[in-house]
Amino acid sequence: MLAAGGGAVGRCVAHCAARTAAARGGRDGGDGPGGRVAWRGRMAAPRGADGGRRGRGHPGAGRPLRRGERRVHAGCGGRAARRRPLRALARGTAGRRGARLAAGGGGGAAVSGKIAVLAGHVADQIAAGEVVERPASVVKELVENALDAGARAVRVELEDGGKTLIRVSDDGEGMTREDAVLALQRHATSKIREAADLIGVGSFGFRGEALPAIASVSRFELETSADGAHGTRLRVTGGRREAVENAVRQRGTTITVRGLFFNTPARRKFLRAAATETRAAAEALTVLALTRPEVAFTLTSDERSLLDVGVAGRAIDRIHALWGRELADSLLPVAYREGPLEITGFAQRPSQAKPAGRKGYVFARGRPIRDPFILRAAEAGYRSAIHPGDRPSLVLFLDLPGDAVDVNVHPAKLEVRFRDKFFVEKVVEEAVRAALAPLTAAAPLGAGSQASGAGGAWVGLGEEIPGGVPLELFSGESLTPDTRHPTPSLLQVFDTYILFQTDGGVAIVDQHSAHERVLYEQVMRQLTGDGAPAQRLLLPLTLEFSPPELDAIEAHRELLRRVGFEIEPFSGRSVVVHTAPNPHPRFEAAPCLQELVADLAGGRFGGWQNRLERFAATFACRAAIKAGHKLDPEEMRQLLASLLTATLPAHDVHGRPTIVQLPKDELERRFGRA
Question: Minimal CA–CA distance to 350: which of 518, 517, 492?
Fold first, then answer.
């Protein structure tokens, strides 16, 4: 680089290098004609990029040097003490340049000091970082292989959280010796044969990376038998096969992993405490157990049983075995289909959701996946039926054509890509909302009770009510025998709850929550339509509000007008109310407006993202009939009939139930008749 430079030092180096090369050429070529020609050719100083101006001012500048002639370079100074380091620098530069050129285009073998092909065991250890992150990853991959092999029982054993030992045994198909040896090579798989097979692949594994990746970072042992008569044992340490032996075992496969990451201490030091790794492994096995209720699973850690679930006939039975009856009884079944997408599973009742501790699982074509957007879409189905901040538990299974989802996204196979992601999210939201809609979603009373017979007593109330047309509550019109619907006997207790008998027990309705749900859906229609009918007050109301409340009135003036409040400023902090709604005979306009404005200013429903829904929920809460209001039988009947036409009749806007059921079985158990 210095010889090619344009500065003084560069010119000195070029000059000295040329003189050194000339001297060597003379010695090599001798005094013969051939040597003299070669010597002169090498000593000919080429003109630089500046046209030879570098030698201007010196004798003989711009012409070849003759034999025995010495050129004095302005930058060299002519002193030996200064020429020696420059000559050494020139020789070093020329040597490096020659080596680089030889490597690039010479006739010999290409040699590179920067790029090299990694050894096979090194590549396996690097690839293992994507597949084997922690002991739970090993458990997941080995159990998935067992399920792909058709196992009906899977047993997992851990020691020290999986750091010391992981053993997975199954009763699946097993392998012959040839297949067992081949299975430890990278990209060896029995699941696919060509890229087209990835479309609609139904197995958990298909990449052929798990076993060699695990074997490269552990002391690995595989025992397998395809027929129960001939078995094979393979031992691999750090990716190097040590032995292939005969073994005796029943049909199936057992894989033992000892000393995970023993040869990669940088990875091993990032493992967590044994208890943390054990919980992660148990979670991985739990997720896979949800996908296969027909398979029995067992997990032991340090000889202590952590999980033992037998074969289950239904998915809800598997959930009960994994998480207990309390959670299982709080789940509602989800069954919904639109186009090619079918969604099944379970969604938790809004009243039993909690801010923390929720369980959210999504499965696509039987494969567990991580997709926060799908869970967010499912939570959107709870809109206007759950308290902001509560997180319901969800277990959803998505069944769609194989060409509508790509599962080959990440080696861990926990991420997928949907061909139409927005369609999937929309259908998931609709599926959850449909599960919350029926009256069977009402919360039951009593331990272990199931919601049954909820809709039996409600059918007569809505037989002649046109769907989607709101029934005016407390209209004051007496119903004729032709328009009166058959209803069960209604009883109001504590001036708050309405009781009646159903086919399966006793139903209890909270009159405030029920009316709140009815008003909310009516107000939403009014806010998006022409507004609500309002009555003009003979004596306008004059009310005072604080500055923040006045700001809230100004911000929501149009919405207040649509629900029936016509407000205009008066003086100072006062406003005048000219019209008001009349949702029921006991409605008091002034207290309702004051409470409504205070809630709007304080952001009571601030967790709701939709502004219209937030306003409608606030108004419905304040305008609904209250606990302690005495209702006559006809008012109770109209309230129940209107609740029946609501979209989500079993839940109010706070996520509380509007109706609970006391099953007959629970009554009989309490009285010793069961």
Answer: 517
Spatial distance between the Cα atoms of 441 and 439, rounded to a whole number of angstroms = 5
User: How many CB atoms lie under 10 A from the CB of residue 355?
Assistant: 10
Question: Residue 491 corresponds to which tokens in the numbers above?
Answer: 């009883």
Q: Which residues contact residue 393 at a Cβ distance below 8 angstroms, ignoring those fewer than 6 apart?
A: 327, 330, 331, 346, 347, 348, 353, 358, 359, 360
Which domains does the chain carry? 1-47+71-100 (no CATH), 121-308 (3.30.565.10), 330-434 (3.30.230.10), 456-663 (3.30.1370.100)
Pair 255, 168: CB distance under 8 Å: yes
| CA–CA dist 346, 344 (Å, integer) | 7
Structure tokens at 500: 């009646």
CA-to-CA distance for 277 and 161, rounded, in angstroms? Answer: 5
Q: Find, among 294, 274, 296, the residue nearest to 285 by Cα.
A: 296
Tokens of 314: 């239904």
Q: What percent of the chain has pLDDT over 90?
A: 46
Residue 565's pLDDT band, with cuts at 50, 70 and 90, is: very high
* DSSP code, position 261: T
H-run or E-run covering 418: strand 417-418
Closest CA to 395 of 364, 361, 350, 367: 361
Q: Is the CB of residue 505 less than 8 Å from the CB of residue 664?
A: yes
Taking the C-alpha atoms of residue 622 and residue 19, their distance in angstroms, rounded to an integer, is: 101
Distance CA 131, CA 128 (A): 5
Q: Distance between alpha carbon 533 and the CA centroid of its chain, in Å?
A: 46
The residue type of 139 is V
SS3 541: strand
How long, in residues, is the chain? 674
CA 530 to centroid of chain Cα atoms: 41
Q: Are 450 and 320 in contact (CB under 8 A)?
A: no
- The answer to whether 588 touches 537, Cβ cutoff 8 Å, is no
Residues 360-370, mean pLDDT to the nearest whole number: 92
Q: How confident is the model at residue 193 (pLDDT cuts 50, 70, 90)?
A: low
What are the tokens at 109?
């073998």
Orientation angle between helical segments 33-43 and 8-29, nearest 10 degrees: 170
Q: What distance in Å separates the CA atoms of residue 137 and residue 613, rounded to the nearest whole number?
A: 43
Residue of 442, 433, 424 lying closest to 382 (CA atoms): 433
